[in-house]
Each structure stands twice: as C-alpha cells, then as structure tokens.
Amino acid sequence: MNTFSPFTLSSLSFLGPELVLLSVGILLIVVDLFFENRLLLPWLTAAGTLVSLVLLFNSPSGIVFGYMYVVDAYSVFFKMVCLVGVLFTVLLSERYLTTEKLRHGEYYSLLVFSTVGMMAMVSGGDLIVVYLGLELMALSVYCLVGLLKQDSRSNEASLKYFLMGAFSTGLLLYGISLIYGLTGTTDLSMLSQRVVSLDLINNHAFLVGLGLVLVAFCFKVAAAPFHMWAPDVYEGAPSSITAFMAVAPKAAAFAVLGRVLIMGFADVHIHWGPIIAFLAVLTMAIGNIAAIAQKSLKRMLAYSSIAHAGYALLGILAGNNEGLSATMNYLFIYAFMNMGAFAILILLCDNKRRGEQLDDYRGLAKTNPLVAALMLVFLFSLVGLPPTAGFIGKFYLLVAAIHAGYIVTVVAAMIFSVISAYYYLRVVRYMYFENAVQETAAVSISPGMTAALVLAMIGMIGMATFPGPILSFAGKSLIGF
Amino acid sequence: MIPVTWYLALSIILFSIGMYGFLTRRNVIIMFLCIELMLNAANLNFVAFSHYLTDLHGQVMTFFIIAVAAAEAAIGLGIVLALFRNRRTVYSDEINQLRG
C-alpha cells in the first residue's frame, strides 16, 4: 500500500482522463449555447473521449487523496470499457438524434458526465467515492432515458428507472452504514483487514449490511430477481441510450462489485459465493427464457443483456483473479457485439419504420445484404458460436467457474446458452429465409454509423483471432490487487 | 449519554417504514418520499456510528448523502412532471404502457 498522500495539486495529474471529460462536458454546454451548428457536438464528444482514452494509458498509477481514489490497472481496464461504450454511443447517436428530433446539447453533456461518474466509481477506493460516482452516473442516465419528453413511453421508462434506482441507493446506503458501524471505516482495503481482525465473518449485522450492498449492485447490473425494471427501461429509452446502458453502466457496476467483493470481502467468500451462484443461474434462466417470447427486437436485446449479466457473474462467483479477469474480458467483448447489434437496430430506424420490431427484419438479406450479414455476425457472437469473439469470452468464464468448483452452475450456463441460440437465430431466419412484408426503403448510412460498424467489426474480428492481448491485460491488471 | 442501540432501533424503524411504504403505496410522490425516509435512516445510522466511534467519516458521508438526495429530488420531480404532462396520472399502477 502506498504512503498516505494528502491533497496536493500534483494529485490532479492522476485524474487526467476524468478532468478531460469533465471539461469536454462543460465545453459542450457552452458550444450548444453559442453555436448554431449542432453537428459539431458529436464529433467534439468523440474527440474528447479519444483524448481521454489516450490519456488513460499515459497517466501515472497510484492511490491519491488519502486512499480515496485508486488509479490502478484494474480501474484503467474498466475505464477503457466505459470509454469504448461512450465512443460507440456517440457515433450511433449522430444521425439518430436528428431522426428522433432530440436536442443535441444536453444529450452529449449528460453522456459525458455519466461517464465521469463511472470512472469515479471504478476508481473508488472508499465507499464514499463509490457512492458519489454511482450517483453521478445514475442521475445523468435517469435524465438520458427520459430525454424524449413528448414520448410517454420514454417518460415511463425514466420514472421506473428512477424509482428502482433510488430504492436500490437507499438499500446500498443502509448496508454501507451497517458495515461502517461495525468496522469503523469506509476504506475498502482497511475493511478487509478489519473484517478479519474484528472477526466479523459470521456477524449477523455485518452479513445484513453486506447483503444489502450486494442487492443494490444486483439492481445496477440487472441480475434476477432484481431485473424487473430493465426490460421496460431498455424498451422505452432512446435506442442509443439503451445500447449505452447495456454496456457502460453495467461494466462500471461489475467493476465495483468485483472490487468490493474480491478486494473488500474476499474472506467472506463462503457466504457470498453460493448466493452469487444462485443469482447467476436465475439471471441466465429468466433472461434467456423471457427473451424467447418477445416480438420486439429491442426488448429481446434487453432480456439478452440480462442473460449476459448472468454469464458475467460466473467470473465474480469464482472469487479469484482468474474469474475476475474472465469477467473483464467478457465485458469488453460484449461491448463490441452489443453495440454492433444496436448499431443495426438504429440504422434501420428512420421516418417510416422504427427498426425495433422483429417483423422489420423479414427479408432484410434480399434488400440490404450487407446489413443482414453484419447483423448475422453480431448475433452469432451473442450466441457464442465457436469462431466468434463471444465464444472466446464465454469459454474463459466457464473455465474459471469450473476451476472454482461450480460444476452445476456451469452446466446450467451451457443449457441456457443453447436455449439462447433459439431466439438469436430466429432473427437470422427472418432475415434470410422470409420475404419482406412490405417494400422496405434502402438504409441511409451516415459517417458516424459507418465508423461505429467498422469499429465493431474490427473489434469482433480482432478479439476472435487474437484474444491474447486483452486477456493478458485483464490478467495483469489484477496482480497485487 | 443515549446508548447507540436506541439510534439503531429508531433508524431500523424509519428504514422499515420507508421500505414498506415504497412497496405498498401507488402514488409516485409518496413512493419518492418513502425513499427519502430510507436515505435518512441511513443518515441517522452514519451520524450515530460516527459519534459512537469518534470518527468523522460517517458525518462526511451524511453531508454527501444530503446533497445528492437534493439533486435526486430535483431530477425525480422533473421526471414525474414530464410524465404528468403526457399522461395526467401519478399512480404507478396506471403507468403500464411498457410490458411484455
């Protein structure tokens, strides 16, 4: 552990990526106020995200602000996932916002502020910082979900998300307060020492506190049985925000879950291990089985994202570095395949159709062969079929869970994976083996959309052929964790 | 000096009332008030523990929670207002357009 460092100006150099994003967020508000040309905004956001991404790999690592803020390779990895998620979202939104007649200014600045929140959350070495980051992220996303003010479905989604989010915050805080009262600290590294030295492993009040924290984060990652809000919110939100929510805030919540459980409460693994195993199986079951019944592709992808949270929980469940690095790897791959699928959904959204219903995909291969082929790759990857990146991710997760001894859970994961093939491949059947109900117009492609699709494809092919670098980066980031 | 268990009992009662209200009430504003009750139960815990442990972290946390709760209230009421303009209702069982 590093020596205690009080606040100095030089500590700010550890916050480079966050400060860049924060200034971009403020700059976006100013530009929105004084310039007429709204098309400047997405590119400004994308540029800011890229600068932040470059800075991320060039900033020093250490523990600053008196153990409050931890900049280590683990946080860098998750910040990378979040920034990639935001970059995709910005590229997807460029044309979509005009189609939906959404205002550009606050959209991009809220997106950027929520990312700053995620970065704070991921770097939080103290439960206070984790809480503040979580709230900055959540408050911005509540607004983003409800940004289609005239659309009552968007209002409803936003309200549901807000109520469930605020409720889970209440549970989280009460849990933290109990843990604080018993250990006398909110510092995560100190917590793990106090749990052992004060012999709290079987203390009931402590376990209640830990349980409440666990439930709150299960709300955030939409793990069953705390997933009820997710399908409604994902369906009602603007499509670009749905894509964003399934990737970035979820990755940030997993990062905190990993840090809190494995760094703070590793010694209590005997208590939370079986609970996470049960939740993982339940999440995969509910996500995959409910997705079969959906007629809307957007809602189907919402259930699929619940199911994928279940797979990612397998790595946390293992409770060791191997499992955690498998989860990190999987979340990174998931960012690309999920963004790819949503890119196609948004591409098909124009004035005539929404691109959200499964029927919109009938006969797509005949009218737009390229779009259908791309969708095919993303869907195969989401199923986890062997040559794709999705398979690589799932493979390491299952191996980690087997090594940790959760054989039954792994068998269940395999079975639900097979079930998931049914609803993903149904979209493929619609695209390739059925005729269009009505004559569909050609899709109009924008520069941002092209960039997003190319990026998604490069990521997918790169991860499928050379999975080594990302996996070893994830593994290395856990050394000395 | 009042023993810390009394504060804990009060905060558990507050938290339970809040949770019960959130789960049973159907008026969105009341549900929101119940969430505030839960947050304040946590605040009470933090302050009581902070005094008991003579450690300032708990009080710092309380200040942050109060500030964030204010921001949350602003956003929450804004969302309720946007919904009310379109639907003319604040009852959660009438807000059921999204389902399936």
Automatic annotation (TrEMBL), chain A:
<dbReference type="GO" id="GO:0005886">
    <property type="term" value="C:plasma membrane"/>
</dbReference>
<comment type="similarity">
    <text>Belongs to the complex I subunit 2 family.</text>
</comment>
<keyword id="KW-0472">Membrane</keyword>
<dbReference type="GO" id="GO:0048038">
    <property type="term" value="F:quinone binding"/>
</dbReference>
<dbReference type="InterPro" id="IPR001750">
    <property type="entry name" value="ND/Mrp_TM"/>
</dbReference>
<dbReference type="GO" id="GO:0012505">
    <property type="term" value="C:endomembrane system"/>
</dbReference>
<feature type="transmembrane region" description="Helical">
    <location>
        <begin position="331"/>
        <end position="349"/>
    </location>
</feature>
<feature type="transmembrane region" description="Helical">
    <location>
        <begin position="47"/>
        <end position="70"/>
    </location>
</feature>
<keyword id="KW-0812">Transmembrane</keyword>
<comment type="function">
    <text>NDH-1 shuttles electrons from NADH, via FMN and iron-sulfur (Fe-S) centers, to quinones in the respiratory chain. The immediate electron acceptor for the enzyme in this species is believed to be ubiquinone. Couples the redox reaction to proton translocation (for every two electrons transferred, four hydrogen ions are translocated across the cytoplasmic membrane), and thus conserves the redox energy in a proton gradient.</text>
</comment>
<protein>
    <recommendedName>
        <fullName>NADH-quinone oxidoreductase subunit N</fullName>
        <ecNumber>7.1.1.-</ecNumber>
    </recommendedName>
</protein>
<feature type="transmembrane region" description="Helical">
    <location>
        <begin position="76"/>
        <end position="93"/>
    </location>
</feature>
<feature type="transmembrane region" description="Helical">
    <location>
        <begin position="161"/>
        <end position="183"/>
    </location>
</feature>
<feature type="transmembrane region" description="Helical">
    <location>
        <begin position="300"/>
        <end position="319"/>
    </location>
</feature>
<keyword id="KW-1133">Transmembrane helix</keyword>
<dbReference type="GO" id="GO:0008137">
    <property type="term" value="F:NADH dehydrogenase (ubiquinone) activity"/>
</dbReference>
<feature type="domain" description="NADH:quinone oxidoreductase/Mrp antiporter transmembrane">
    <location>
        <begin position="125"/>
        <end position="420"/>
    </location>
</feature>
<feature type="transmembrane region" description="Helical">
    <location>
        <begin position="12"/>
        <end position="35"/>
    </location>
</feature>
<keyword id="KW-0830">Ubiquinone</keyword>
<feature type="transmembrane region" description="Helical">
    <location>
        <begin position="105"/>
        <end position="122"/>
    </location>
</feature>
<comment type="subunit">
    <text>NDH-1 is composed of 14 different subunits. Subunits NuoA, H, J, K, L, M, N constitute the membrane sector of the complex.</text>
</comment>
<dbReference type="GO" id="GO:0050136">
    <property type="term" value="F:NADH dehydrogenase (quinone) (non-electrogenic) activity"/>
</dbReference>
UniProtKB/TrEMBL annotation, chain B:
<protein>
    <recommendedName>
        <fullName>NADH-quinone oxidoreductase subunit K</fullName>
        <ecNumber>7.1.1.-</ecNumber>
    </recommendedName>
</protein>
<dbReference type="GO" id="GO:0050136">
    <property type="term" value="F:NADH dehydrogenase (quinone) (non-electrogenic) activity"/>
</dbReference>
<dbReference type="InterPro" id="IPR001133">
    <property type="entry name" value="NADH_UbQ_OxRdtase_chain4L/K"/>
</dbReference>
<feature type="transmembrane region" description="Helical">
    <location>
        <begin position="6"/>
        <end position="23"/>
    </location>
</feature>
<dbReference type="GO" id="GO:0030964">
    <property type="term" value="C:NADH dehydrogenase complex"/>
</dbReference>
<dbReference type="InterPro" id="IPR039428">
    <property type="entry name" value="NUOK/Mnh_C1-like"/>
</dbReference>
<feature type="transmembrane region" description="Helical">
    <location>
        <begin position="30"/>
        <end position="54"/>
    </location>
</feature>
<keyword id="KW-1133">Transmembrane helix</keyword>
<keyword id="KW-1003">Cell membrane</keyword>
<comment type="similarity">
    <text>Belongs to the complex I subunit 4L family.</text>
</comment>
<comment type="subunit">
    <text>NDH-1 is composed of 14 different subunits. Subunits NuoA, H, J, K, L, M, N constitute the membrane sector of the complex.</text>
</comment>
<keyword id="KW-0472">Membrane</keyword>
<feature type="transmembrane region" description="Helical">
    <location>
        <begin position="60"/>
        <end position="84"/>
    </location>
</feature>
<comment type="function">
    <text>NDH-1 shuttles electrons from NADH, via FMN and iron-sulfur (Fe-S) centers, to quinones in the respiratory chain. The immediate electron acceptor for the enzyme in this species is believed to be ubiquinone. Couples the redox reaction to proton translocation (for every two electrons transferred, four hydrogen ions are translocated across the cytoplasmic membrane), and thus conserves the redox energy in a proton gradient.</text>
</comment>
<keyword id="KW-1278">Translocase</keyword>
<dbReference type="GO" id="GO:0042773">
    <property type="term" value="P:ATP synthesis coupled electron transport"/>
</dbReference>
<keyword id="KW-0520">NAD</keyword>
<keyword id="KW-0560">Oxidoreductase</keyword>
<dbReference type="Pfam" id="PF00420">
    <property type="entry name" value="Oxidored_q2"/>
</dbReference>
<keyword id="KW-0997">Cell inner membrane</keyword>
<keyword id="KW-0874">Quinone</keyword>
<keyword id="KW-0812">Transmembrane</keyword>
